[in-house]
Request: fold
Amino acid sequence: MNEKVLHVLEYNKIIHQLVEQASSSLGEERARRLLPSISFDEVVQWQNETDEAAQILRLKGHVPLSGIFDIRPAVKRASIGGALNPEECLHVASTIRAGKNIKQFIEELEEVEIPNLDQLMEGIATLNELERNIRGCIDDYGHVMDGASTKLRTARSKIRTLESSIRDRLEQYTKNKSKMLSDAIITIRNDRFVLPVKQEYRGVFGGIVHDQSSSGATLFVEPQSIVELNNKLQTARVEEQQEIERILHELSAMIAEDEHYLLENVQILAHVDFIVAKAKLGKQMKASKPNMNDKGIIKMREARHPLIVEEEVVANDVEIGEDYTTIVITGPNTGGKTVTLKLVGLCTLMAQAGLQVPAQDGCELTVFEHVFADIGDEQSIEQSLSTFSSHMTNIVDILQKVNDKTLVLFDELGAGTDPQEGAALAMAILDEVIGRQARVIATTHYPELKAYGYNRDEVVNASVEFDVKTLRPTYRLLIGVPGRSNAFEISRRLGLGSNIIDRAKSLTGHDSRNVENMIASLESSKRKAEEDYEEAKQTLADAERYKQELEQKWNQFEKEKERLYEKAEQQAKKAVDKAKEEAEHIIADLRSMKNQAEVKEHHLIEAKQKLKSASEKVADKKGKSVPSNKNADNKELKPGDEIKVITLNQQGHVVEKTGNDEYLVQLGIMKVKAKRKNIQFLKRPEPIKEKPLATVKGNTYHVKTELDLRGERYEEALHQLEKYIDDALLAGYHQVSIIHGKGTGALRKGVQKFGERHPSIKAQRMGDIGEGGSGVTVFELK
Reply:
């Protein structure tokens, strides 16, 4: 890419922001060297890497990149036999640890697909032994530890012992001869312990004078009594230093052995830090991944200039490369046109550098071989005003290199010379660049170029909206609407007399006024269309939301329907199983009495077969169609009516109505519930005149006022309960107690449900404290 173009489009400012996002000097170095690529495959690879890091940041919020150092110089020095200092060795260990941390972090990610980063992690060597050896010798502060070797521990122990002995002796001087000292302290000169002695008492201490104060009144004396101890201390320190150097040489040799792996780790970590820095910058800019193409197509929705603060930037839609290849932005010099040029150019450079762009998701950008910009930023005090000559020199250079893989940005094309000649020259230059199939965005204030786009299919007019009320541009780009002069409106707002403005209007050509009126109409139409589009967009969003809510409720309805079907089937199966069990008992009783009654065996088999048939139909698989009641009617059924249950193909009579559309019917020895649509009315029996009956109870008729169901099976307990209630009603009881115990509560719930369904039970309650509490249910009978 042209260095001048990078500077004009302020690409260096983006790089500066990128450098600030790096976590290490290695990442900063990579960021500073970043230039846009012209290789389509490379750009796609870079964008994918950045997107993977962006996904990780969205999920985890961070990537562990601390502890990375540029250890390349140290490793190189170690490889040629040099000894590293403790801090350099510690940096090597820290970088090894950082590599292991990031590798483990990436490998444990399962929420996202990150093939590029996964592949990078495969190249990181863990080097556990080298890290362990370094950490075993050097602490976190860069000091060689006593435990690095036995000899070092011995030397340091000796040093501490000697220092303690020397201090003990010198403290005796500070206590006993403090008047002879300038200050009662122990100090060090030339790495030897000394005392600050007054000049006149020099002879009292003997020994060696190492220094004196600036006034000469104080001498720093090493007393003769500790000279030998100081000598031994120096010897011990030399031994310590020699052992430290030996340890560092040994560690450096180990580092040299792993030179290749260490340098490879550094390279990978630098690249990862660089990728994450790009993702962080994208997050800071609220940017998105652009879909790259090599067809010269640019599509950006709500694109924002990345160097304008969020509170001031205006988002714009920019599209070029499909229906048209050139945009000509016309209108007065209000500042918004140049921003648009730089927006497109800078976003293109960022995308080709693998950076995300500040636009909505789904934006498209292309990979250009060349990006040229002839922009004279008259608002910058750092540059002088562009002249016609400098513009032409730049344009001539552009025309020599432009092709179909080029993006060209012209700012105020043809400016700086006679307006008529400048406009003609601008159109000729545009024709030449367009003829080479380049993508072009040009700004101009020449009115002649407003009609340029209407005569060429590959060119579209555009303008930057201007608010006459505030006398400021809104910076909104209007594609398809050429810019119009606002001189009259601005002058009127600034107080210029109406007579002068009317006179000026009369002097303008008729064609010019027609063009201005057409442009005003286009602006109004476009604004209305945009408002309608936003309204339609909102309506569509509401419709989508309602559709999703309806689908969600429908799915819930379907699930609930399936659940109710399953529940109904289970209840029906339980009813049939219960009836079957009761029938088996009855048949067994009948068999036992067949010698006394005229009950034939084939009658028993037939009854059992009918029960089996009913059971199979109820237990049929869910979803199987039920035979329709072709003879169904709307006749209200009454107890005693003879009916036929279509689904069971059985005749019987109605016992009672249990719901809006549900009846309890007696089919032989079975009682089942059936829907009205599945019941065929046969006939209604003739009413029988009731005769008064008298209930006679003998002395042998005894029914207890309570029933104990504890220890009984659930089904057997309910069977006993039903029979007991019949007996209690026959006995004329008004209240009975059912003892079910507390236990798990299953039997209690069954008893209470039975009481709710039984037509002869008027009310029910839990037992009082004296009646057994929650272990007893009291029924009040009708």
